[in-house]
Amino acid sequence: KAGVTQTPRYLIKTRGQQVTLSCSPISGHRSVSWYQQTPGQGLQFLFEYFSETQRNKGNFPGRFSGRQFSNSRSEMNVSTLELGDSALYLCASSLGGEADTQYFGPGTRLTVL
Amino acid sequence: GDSVTQMEGPVTLSEEAFLTINCTYTATGYPSLFWYVQYPGEGLQLLLKATKADDKGSNKGFEATYRKETTSFHLEKGSVQVSDSAVYFCALSDRGNQGGKLIFGQGTELSVKP
Known about the structure:
The complex is a heterodimer. Chain A is mainly β. Chain A is built from no helices and eleven strands. In chain A, the strands form two sheets. In chain A, strands 2, 4, 5, 6, 9, 10 and 11 form a seven-stranded mixed beta sheet that branches. In chain A, strands 1-3-8-7 form a four-stranded antiparallel beta sheet, with no helix packed on it. By secondary structure, chain B is an all-beta fold. Chain B starts with a strand and ends with a strand. At the A-B interface, strand 4, strand 5, strand 9 and strand 10 of A face strand 5, strand 6, strand 10 and strand 11 of B.
């Protein structure tokens, strides 16, 4: 079974631009979660989508948004990029039940100049 | 709110040494507990998990026991190898969240020397 895939793997943007990241979950998984990883703040939860609905949300500003499609693929959008948004963005998929294992993709490395 | 605290790294060991990485948690509910590992340039891989008190998760020689009385989930391995060099993350998922939201510790970098 194919794992979680994320595209693109690397991105370079400038301040003020917007960016869209994509995540394709493992076949059959209905939940997709997004995390931001930085050296200073570690791994922080952004949001989770389940069956096209946002089910959980972390403490990030409204510039961070996401959506999920009927095939469970998910996109994350960051508008008006700031230098501090430079990070590794990880997505994870699961069946969506309590304590179900989340399987992570390789991440998208975003650099904001 | 819920939180996870791990011992600070980096931890440097010689091959075949015994490994312990401490992890304690604070949760309002009754969480499930996980250990993930991240190799350089990669995403996170699940190492092991435990969903209730006294459960022992194990995988690839690593073990961790869910201790509700001490709110701990320490990771252990009897004999580490160079290939175990990576960053290890302890995490929890609160049952009330219906899954999908993991809270991570800050990570512990392990370096194993030949």
